[in-house]
Design brief:
This protein is an alpha/beta fold and 117 residues long. It is built from two helices and eight strands; from the N terminus they run βαββββαβββ.
């Protein structure tokens, strides 16, 4: 069970939803705005991993980094829509840990990786 929820800063809700939902397979669980037309704060999830995305000033700075553990990094890479993302193939950064690095439209970095066995 995930016990923390990372929050990433976004600047454009539509662009971020297209990236996270259409390209990476997350789903939007809920959205909150104080009033119509105000910045969004939303929860997204994918296979048990949860993130908050916020367009609110002061919540956090762009340029965050989140690591996701996946069962099979090569299979994960093969499922990515290559036309929607610029992604290099998995590589080994640390002995026994293979990963794929992806940057979102706001410069937040997502690292999908196999856990060291």
């Amino acid at each position: 069970m995930q016990k923390v929820i990372p929050t990433l800063k976004i600047s454009n809700e539509e662009r971020s939803q297209a990236f996270y939902v259409e390209a990476l397979g997350f789903q939007v669980d809920w959205e909150h705005r104080f009033e119509p037309g105000y910045p969004v704060f939303m929860q997204i999830s994918r296979e048990g991993d949860v993130l908050y995305l916020t367009a609110h000033e002061g919540d956090c700075q762009p340029g965050g980094l989140v690591h996701f553990l996946v069962d099979d990094i090569d299979r994960f890479y093969e499922t990515l829509p290559q036309g929607k993302l610029e992604v290099n193939p998995p590589y080994e950064m640390v002995e026994g840990v293979r990963m794929v690095r992806i940057s979102d439209p706001d410069g937040n970095e997502l690292r999908f990786m196999n856990a060291k066995k």
